[in-house]
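User: Sequence in, structure out. Go.
Assistant: Echoing your sequence, followed by the structure tokens.
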Amino acid sequence: MRKIISFMHISLDGFVAGPNGEMNWIKVDEELFDHISKRIGEGDTALYGRVTYQMMEDYWPTAADKPTASKHDIDHSKWYKKAQKLVLSKTMKGADLTNTKIISDNLSDNINEIKQQPGEDILLFGSPTATHSLIQLNLIDGYWLFVNPIILGRGIPLFTDIKDKIKLKLLTTKQFTSGVTELNYIVDKE
């Protein structure tokens, strides 16, 4: 069965964005991009909330075409174009979207059906609101977190309104020269 893995940059105090959604505190560099690209390259499906999907759709389809495109932009643009995209949204209509399926209702049933289909892990990128919905329904199977060396003090938390404990099993960690630490967890269902 396919797993949903939440991919998220996070502050040391547990925020995924500032109070107004700002993410200018996230540290990224070539070392981090190369590491992330390898893992993302193993996946074939991206899951987004509407806001994150629209940001991605505005940038990634043509990112490789720009004369100043970085290696990361070229690699991720190629991956993005061929990846299946799932978007959680009650307002979007998606009849004409390439490689994109809109999930607007019956979230648990729809996601569980997709998890049963053949394919690789489903990577949930950013999307705090979508992540919160999936956590509430116990649909996230793992957390791939990049802890940034900053304390924001306030903002949008990754974990909020948790009803039941979620036990995790640490799979790997990695320290980057930027000070970012990768924590790769799987949900311990036992």
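User: And one key feature?
Assistant: The radius of gyration is 16 Å.
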